[in-house]
tRNA dimethylallyltransferase (Lentithecium fluviatile CBS 122367), 470 residues
Amino acid sequence: MAAAPVKPLVAIVGATGTGKSDLAVEIARKYNGEVINGDAMQLYEGLPIITNKITKDEMKGVPHHLLGCIGLDEETWTVGKFVSKALGVINEIRSRGKLPVLVGGTHYYTQSLLFQDALSEELQLENEKGQQTGRFPILDEPTAVILEKLKEVDTVMADRWHPNERRKIQRSLEIYLKTGKPASQIYDEQRLKREVSLAAPECETSDVGLRFPTLLLWVHASKDLLYTRLDGRIDKMIQKGLLSEVQRLSDFAASYEKRTGAPVDLTRGIWVSIGYKEFLDYHAALSNPSLSESDLAKMRTAAIEKTQAATRQYAKRQIRWIQIKLLNASLAAGQRSNIFLLDGSDLSKWEGDVIRPAIQVTEQFLSGKPLPNPTQLSGAAQEMLTPKRDFDLAQRPDLWQKKVCDTCGTVAVTENDWYLHIKSRAHRRAVGNKKKQEHSESSATKKGKGTAEDSIDLFESSLNNFSEKV
């Protein structure tokens, strides 16, 4: 039997509404652990309903960290800041002889914490040296200015982004400004290191593997059942006081603008949390005496439907991240046997399908016993634990193939993205509208031309008639 892992970590991932927090509590209770939040929105103080925070009763006495630790006026933590804070908490938990259990739906936080990453390590090193840690003024310039600068220093990244993707353009330029290297070059270096790591897995100096021994538990639910569960959650959020949190955020935004003379940035931070922007119009309408009960009911229904749709889309993005990025990172680090999917589709079987197998696998992991084959736990595990593709496109600039749709203006960077776009309903509708417009313009031109020709014929006929009479 292998030795028990030194400084182990249990990480729990999955889409919103799958029960990740409940499983984290059970693992922590069983193995003397403490829980670390890995959800960006739950970093904010208050707002337990909009951010879907675990309640005190649900914690069952287990200490939780990085919950409600930043103010509403603060920006969401960067990946680097989260990793730094989380590593500090992990060390504190271990100093008490306890097991750290990471849980959260912001999977780029989770992945950056779990895996050594050449890019994040390089940026962290620059900050530790105290070099260029301040804000670069050019990053606050208009997007077109930032993009032009990026074209000068990193044409590969500049060519990848749509001119309107400000945050991605900013990030690519920031990487160059902080490291002195184009981001595309760093991604290439990462890819080569991964290839070397796969070719020589026994190498102990690889910096693309895990930071520490990790058991990764993925709580999953089938799409149909999960979406039904998420749709029903919105009514419960309203009953618990969602609108009071919308009021609190609106009041804060108004006081912030009065205090600073500038509006809050509604495109980032807590302001993009699902349930706030979707209910703003309805919340404002409640104080409008001219609106009828019927009008309010329609607005309420519309707000609920928008929130439901946004929540489903968020869950879809979370699952996609796990399938494409997290799974490939695990495979590249040689950790295929350490990631387990637990099928939580049927809540009536939660204990047998999720809790018991998770406890059993955790016990084997912590004691150094051989782990079972992850794909054999369930039919869902066999299907979902196979990556949709064997690489993470974000790390392969050599495969980027930028195409721009002349009709829609949409930018695609892979053949698959392009295929999905041209088959999309929005693209087909736009093409249809364009054809109708072209047909209408063509008909008008022909009609105009025909009118002119008819006039000429009429004139010639009149002239001939006049000549005959003469």
Observations:
- Confidence is low (pLDDT under 50) at residues 125-133, 201-207, 466-470.
- The longest helix spans residues 425-469.
